[in-house]
Amino acid sequence: MRPARPTLRALREDLKLPLPSAREPLDELDHPLLAKARNHFGDHEVGQERIRSIDDEVLFKVKVQRWRGAIWADEDLPWLIAAGQREDGSPDDFYSALETTARAARAQYNANNRQPLSTTTYVGHLLPDQNDRDRYHLEAGARLVRDLAAAVRELTLGSLHDGHEHAADFPAFRLGILVRADDGHETYAAVRITGSVPDDLTAVVLRHVPGCDPTAWYPEYALPSRSLLPAEQAWSTLMDPKAAAELLNEE
Fold first, then answer.
1. How confident is the model at residue 46, as a pLDDT?
2. Is the whole-model pTM more than 0.85?
3. Does residue 173 share a domain with residue 153?
4. Residue after which a domain boundary falls, among 75, 106, 128
5. Same domain for 154 and 92
6. Which of 29, 62, 197, 221 is least enclosed by beta carbons within 10 angstroms?
7. Within this chain, do residues 106 and 145 fall inside the same structural domain, yes or no?
8. Parallel, antiparallel or unpaired: strands 5-6 and 77-85
């Protein structure tokens, strides 16, 4: 189960939160209701309580402090589609209001469509739309860049320690980094990618190798210990020894 995330409408209108840049995924926002939804719907062993008053879609309750919310699951992706706060003396007032608006939406739907709904409620207008899905895919690209940057730093640090290549697997390729100092006090850095990746993704990898000039990478046709395989690409440059020492000190 992927982390629960709010729809854009719920984010702006219900939670009253601004829309952050795509570098900040909506499923990581700091809000008590979203944190509760992430924890509750990320655990398959935790029982979920259905909102019985809504019968056109399967919605589940999420509660924390005075916050109340409605979760709709799209396969393995839970969405917070509506949220509100409990008022004193009315423990479930949000869900009563949700039912009232859903009944009104059903009546309006039937008035405007030739094929009426047989259900008593309608929450289709609250479900994720194309804008929500576009935002999700935009975040996926930003998340990949963030994960790549972290992996590049970790692999570089590992190779600095022992002088051997360190590698990690991604969905479409394998990334390897080798950092080796020679007797002349130069620090050689090489990046190997096995698999087909677009040029812009390669640029992201090379840009995030610590202590290396992003414009100073040159294609390699062999690694220090062997030739390249048909599916491999490699680049090399010199790493700033001072930056290498600082990276080790940071650890």
1. 64
2. no
3. yes
4. 128
5. no
6. 221
7. no
8. parallel
Higher-confidence residue of 98 and 43: namely: 98
Where does residue 239 fall: left (phi above 0), alpha (psi -120 to 50 degrees), or beta otherwise? Answer: beta
Pairing outcome for strands 218-220 and 222-223: unpaired
* Shared-domain flag, residues 145 and 243: yes
Say if CB 25 and CB 156 are below 8 A apart. Answer: no
Assess contact for 80 and 69: CB atoms under 8 A: yes
pLDDT at 222: 84
- Residue 216 within a domain: yes
Helix (H) or strand (E) holding 230: none
9/51 same-domain check: yes
Q: Cα separation of 13 and 35, whole Å?
A: 18
Give tens-digit pLDDT for 160-171.
999 899 999 998
- For residue 101, the enclosing domain spans 5-128
